[in-house]
Amino acid sequence: MKTLKYNEFDIEQQSEVSWLIPPRKGMRVPGKIYADRKMMETIIREDESIQQVINVAMLPGIQKYSIAMPDIHWGYGFPIGGVAATDLEEGVISPGGVGYDINCGVRLVRTNLTHDELRKKLELLVQSLFRYVPTGVGASGAIKKVSAQEMNRILSRGAGWCVERGYASPEDLEHTEEQGCLESAAPEFVSERAKERGFNQVGTLGSGNHFLELEMVSEIYDLAAAEVLGLFPGQVVMMIHCGSRGLGHQVCEDHLRTLGAASRKYGIELPDRQLACAPIRSEEGQRYLGAMAAAANFAWANRQVIMHQAKQSFLETLGISERELGFRLIYDVCHNIAKIETHEVDGTEKQVCVHRKGATRAFPPGHPLTPAHYRKIGQPVLIPGDMGRYSFVSLGQQASMLESFGSSCHGAGRIMSRHKAKKAGRGRDLLEEMRKMGVVVQARGMRTVAEEMPHAYKDVSTVVDVMHKAGISKKVAKLVPVGVIKG
Amino acid sequence: MYKILSHTADIALEVWAESLPGLFQEAARGFHDLLLEDAPIRAEQRRQIELSSDEPEDLLVQWLSELNYFVTVHAWLWGAVEDFTLAAENGIWRLKAAVSGEALDAQRHYLYFDIKAVTYHQLEITDTPDGCQTRIVFDI
Q1: I want to staple A185 with a disulfide (CB 3.0 to 4.6 A). Which of A217, A253, A294, B11 is the partner?
Q2: Looking at domain B2-139, what is its CATH homologous superfamily?
Q3: What is the ipTM, given to two decimal places?
Q4: Inter-chain residue contact B114 with A276, CB threshold 8 Å
Q5: Looking at chain B, which residue has its C-alpha nearest residue A207?
Q6: Does the pLDDT value for residue B6 go beyond 80?
Q7: Residue ranges making up the domain that contains A33
């Protein structure tokens, strides 16, 4: 086992894929990072994300470890890929542990179609999806603008609102984390401005790294589990990656301001202003938690409406029946959230506030919150990669409950700045390059395509393999993109 | 003066000016450049902005967030900043400004970024021999 250095901190190797930073200088708990040795060396060299793991370890009431997943990279306050659980009585809640895009997440939908069957109509389908699902900066108008009253209902009920409005089936809710609704939502703590940012954005994708992808199941690592999930080789599935849009960003911004003042009020010393926080039991903390839950509900409604719009697009373009299409939600996970969950700490079960920022819940087989249909195999963990290579489906395993507060990784992470990626794409026909790789891309702007090219991202398979080896989430299937729509 | 900096996953603006009010206005110019690469904006409508805070850094975040709000919610682009005042009284900083601009026209304008938020990351306004400077990171 090896020990590496980061400034004055030691980073001790614990296993092939995990590292420990013993507490020093105000850290209340050790830091724990999942990575193989090569990755760890890159992480140390690359950015200040390790310092952020150390900063998070200083938060009042933090339990066991300040944790980072192998897709760790620099974020605001918390690193992206960071997980921290805090004690409900002595601990704090921090918007920096959730991120600006509250309940950014991933949804995977199965179909009965094979890639061979779709090939001839793929181009048409991608164009149609692009019409049905608004993308890009300020994307709006997927469905009729919602009223103020309806907005409150979306914020309170999340994906449940979609069932009322015919955008979802009850089965969809069964296959959504928290059934698509955090009941602790308090729309009264969502500002008018935040709601204003959301009225016209239900069912829209937005820009940046968000996408809707048609993918083909290219490899299966666990046949029995894949069968339970409804996956088979050569099958076409659809992945949606997006969050709570402008509404969530505004909730974060509003509450960062009040929690910044609250940190001073409660005498909490912070190593970084973006770690602004308040005691969970304080009024400020409760208000943020209520507003955050409401924004999370908005995101679930958003992804559900996108799925509904996409279904219309499939049916219209392919001219087949719903039964032939077999469009069914496999699962929907969020990867930017703080939730009150029960975990074992020092040999006893207790409730804690788990912050997951760029980390996915990964509950194991038998866990009461894993949907009944998946209880024998574990909760699906959906891990998107870049638009040229592959994404993965994994399943939560026992080690996640013992070691990482029921959490796994969430994606690839950029390795190249947008500017560099754009420069690297200059003078090239990127759409043609993607086509040669077997991927039809439709986007609002070529700049987004250049910025989101595969070479701008890490290889997600290495990230997924670390989690697999750590026994946190096991690989079930590899999905390769065949059609992409982006902002 | 300003400079746009590109990070691995984000974008930042470095700004210098001779005075604090100058810094705020320069930051708005830089932000405009970052979003629209200096596309010309017609002065068809004026909007008033009034903000306050107990510290200039927070006020700077509020100021740029307000401009971003016009863009993201009202699809309205600001061009010139007029009648800009910034002063502190009894420990409270107050900003007043009028901004002129026009509704976004997809034929003429292309927005490069969806700015999620103007962040507080390592935000600090520091004095320099020639005035002051700061660095603002945007979450995109």
Answers
A1: A294
A2: Archease domain (3.55.10.10)
A3: 0.84
A4: no
A5: B114
A6: no
A7: 3-97
